[in-house]
Amino acid sequence: MAENGPIEELAKIISEKIFDKFHWKKVGPCDQDYPCEKESIHKPENKKQSHTHPVDTVFCYKDPYLNKIIYLNTDLKSYKKGSIQPKHIEAALNSLANTIDCARHSPIWNEKYAIDVGQSEIRGLLFIYNHDNNYEHNFYEYFNPEKLPGAKKKPPSVNMERVKVQPNQQIHIIEPNIICYLLSMISDMNEMITEGTFPRGKEYGFYYPQLTYHKVLIDDKHLPATIEQLTAPFLIIKHDPVSEHCREKDAYIDRYPGGYVVYYNRPGDSDLEFLYLLDMLSSYQILNLDNKIRIRVASKNRNDSIRSNFRRALEKFSHEWDFDVHAREKLNKIELHLVPTVKEFYSSEEISWDY
To answer: Which of 161, 159, 163, 165 is nearest to 144 (CA)?
Structure first.
């Protein structure tokens, strides 16, 4: 089960720190229950009192492709390493499935949280923070574990047939390794701000290409990151120039050009990985050789030869497209930076002073 008291607060602190940077909003009250609308289905058999569903917090953003406000009814879990077990994950997912099923029909939920005008969709988000920072497991093996050598059967797993997600509803998971990736990304953005190479305010957004079957339907300049982007192999930020006020000229002057920052969440095991990434950037019409592009690897696991693999991919890409010397020089200006891995450490005693 999730930890109690101040330890439980850590997931709330970390989630707010993360999602604000990705242009999400927190809406409505935290730590609330609302009455169940389907007690005949959701209420446990032996429960006598009225059944309710929990709401730890709700985040929202507008999806640029769907032109919908996505509300994420979020279950915040703060676990130590040994408590992250299939039975706890399955129980949390099942509870969340019932919660968002009722939220669609609940006037109380909608009055408290559905504050924005326009089309919307309610989804679930299971946010699992590892507060002792000792978790190294592949989280998704809990859903389909391999049988260990010599064992008669597979280890316990999450049985998704018992998780009653209704048609046209979704549950997303932000697990400890993704949290580490997101925290590393945020720390790197703050580092670039200190260096003067990234906007200090909100003068940046997340890039969405115009695809054949998916068109950007929102005219906002600085778009939020969707939950799909945060868990994808890479994420693209488009940022404005970094400007400073020049007292001599009494005007703002660009100190660093606008451009693109590509955060990469894969190990870089081969040049083919980076060739695929370059092809994607080209198809997104970013790789026109005039844009300032920085690729920043924020994954926890990285190949020792990642830089060599990247340089080899640049050479192969230049060769395949028959670039001339001038075009090759521009392509080779794409930066590759290895982002230090970040973990958040909090003292439960210190947190308890404010709890």
So the answer is: 159
Task: Let me know whether 318 and 187 are in one domain.
Answer: yes
Query: Of residues 8 and 260, which shows the higher confidence score?
Result: 260
CA distances from 152 to 17, 73, 137, 149, 314 (A): 44, 39, 22, 9, 48
Q: Specify whether 111 is located in the same domain as 16.
A: yes
Q: How far apart are CA 77 and CA 124, in angstroms?
A: 13
Q: What pTM value is reported for the model?
A: 0.91
> Are both 255 and 280 inside the same structural domain?
yes
Q: What is the 3-state secondary structure (H, E, C) of 47-77?
A: CCCCCEEEECEEEEEEECCCCEEEEEEEEEE
The domain tally of the chain equals 2
Answer yes or no: do 225 and 127 share one domain.
no
Mean pLDDT of 241-249: 82
CB of 108 closer than 8 Å to CB of 48: no
Q: CA triplet 344, 96, 69: central angle to 5 degrees? A: 80
Q: Show the domain range for 298.
A: 180-338
What's the whole-number mean pLDDT along residues 149-162?
A: 86
Residue 206 shares a structural domain with residue 123: no
